[in-house]
Specification:
about 25% strand; about 450 residues; Immunoglobulin-like
Length: about 450
């Protein structure tokens, strides 16, 4: 009996020993988590958006820093290198601008081991919801020395004159070491403006190369007048500096654009807070130029005060109407168009003015005139605070017609009815009688004993 017990104890010990051996087997095939897409580690600090597509998971890029494949046998797997500062020396960095076609970025570097990957990361001063950093990987043969170039072709996605670019190079060697250069900055400038005239007043900067100081001052006065009018009557102000580049006429302006339209006389790059206009210094062009400066600058203001991450856009009548309003007094040609269209029953509806304007010049001009009339109606009848509240709703992602109902109590159709009615009959506000069609969109005439004088 004792022998049986003794033998049983021995068997239990052996069995326990076997279990311990199995538990102690090293996890040789375990692999730390990896990024299966093969994309580089996120740029630090701050969130970024990379334009380089990820490598195909089934064929990871040879220079990926994500680590070994989970399928690599333990016996042949090499340790993952710890990214760090490589023994790479940058000998030269340079840029060359061929305005308005290309910017060429160049780099020379050397290393005691092969440089296996070179990329350039860059961002522009564009207004975005979150910082955006684009990356372009340079195609070259891995070696101990590198002399590379990357060309930004503006025909495939360009930026306006005056845009600021921040960029840096990232180099990786075959031991996993990485060198990231300091951030550099350049301004994408047309050489015609280099060393020429400029004026700054508050958040507005104007640059020109043809014309006297008085010419520039006249345009600056127009810009400041537009800002003051918008602030006083809509509550809208610039939220970031505006840069205005004045070319010497339409031909010069169009030569600065990659794909210009033949009718282009001025462009507002609202995402960059930049305006470009062709204005000759002669008096005839200057009168048009003053209104155009005010108009395009107003587009920057309205974009900034309504910019939102929800993709909600201003209706065209409001966007263009505010810019027309910022130009100053209404022009006689605008009055004449409204009078004729109202008389003939050919006014466009508010709803139709919310989309793109017609390519037909006469219809487009009428659309601009009606947009200005609509904006003046809302401002003069309901006041500054209402317009400021309406514009503020766009920033919160409220759609245009919904916001109109919340602030003014109108949808597009009901606004169309009261607005077109007032175009024909006029309306009274604060003891002023407005005669939109007969004497101007909203020309106030003080009432005396029931008579206008």
């Amino acid at each position: 009996m004792k022998k049986i017990i003794f033998l049983s104890l021995i068997l239990l010990v052996l069995a326990a020993s076997g279990c311990l051996d199995r538990a102690a087997t090293p996890a040789a095939t375990s692999v730390p988590p990896v990024n299966v897409t093969g994309t580089p580690s996120p740029v630090s600090p701050g969130p970024t958006v990379e334009t380089k597509p990820p490598a195909t998971p089934a064929q990871p890029a040879p220079t990926t820093t994500a680590g070994p494949s989970p399928r690599t046998p333990a016996a042949t797997r090499t340790p993952r290198p710890t990214p760090g500062k490589a023994d790479i020396q940058v000998q030269n960095m340079d840029t060359e601008t061929d305005f308005p076609q290309t910017i060429t970025f160049s780099l020379k570097a050397r290393s005691p081991v092969n440089i296996t990957r070179i990329a350039i990361r860059y961002s522009t001063g564009r207004i975005t919801v979150a910082p955006v950093i684009s990356e372009a990987v340079v195609n070259f043969q891995p070696a101990g020395t590198a002399d590379v170039r990357w060309v930004w072709d503006m025909r495939k996605g360009g930026i306006p004159v005056g845009a600021k670019i921040k960029y840096q190079w990232v180099l990786t060697d075959d031991k996993g070491g990485r060198l990231t250069t300091e951030m550099n900055e350049l301004t994408y400038i047309d050489p015609r403006f280099t060393g020429k005239s400029s004026l700054s007043w508050g958040d507005v900067n104007i640059y020109w190369y043809d014309g006297s100081l008085r010419f520039g001052q006249t345009l600056m006065d127009a810009a400041q007048g537009a800002l003051e009018k918008l602030t006083q009557n809509t509550g809208a102000t610039l939220e970031r500096p505006a840069n205005i580049y004045i070319y010497s006429g339409t031909q010069d302006l169009q030569s600065s654009l990659v794909f210009p339209q033949e009718w282009t006389g001025g462009v507002a790059f609202t995402d960059y807070s930049i305006v470009v206009i062709g204005i000759s210094p002669d008096n005839q062009s200057l009168a048009w130029g003053k209104r155009t400066v005010a108009h395009e600058l107003a587009h920057l203001v309205t974009h900034q005060v309504t910019f939102n991450p929800y993709g909600v856009q201003l209706p065209t009548w409001l966007n263009e109407g505010l810019s027309q309003y910022a130009e100053g007094d209404i022009e006689q040609s605008t009055i004449d168009r409204l009078k004729k269209a109202s008389r003939d029953g050919k006014l466009f509806s508010v709803r139709s003015l919310s989309g793109s304007f017609s390519a037909n010049s006469d219809e487009a001009l009428l659309s601009y005139a009606e947009s200005e009339s609509l904006v003046r109606y809302l401002i003069e009848k309901f006041g500054r605070d209402k317009m400021q509240q309406y514009l503020g709703l766009f920033k919160d992602g409220v759609e245009a017609e919904e916001g109109l109902m919340k602030v003014y109590g109108y949808n597009y159709d009901s606004l169309n009815t009261v607005w077109q009615s007032n175009l024909k009959t006029g309306f009274q506000v604060n003891n002023h009688y407005f005669l939109p069609v007969l004497s101007g969109i909203f020309l106030p005439v003080r009432l005396n004993m029931g008579k206008a004088w």
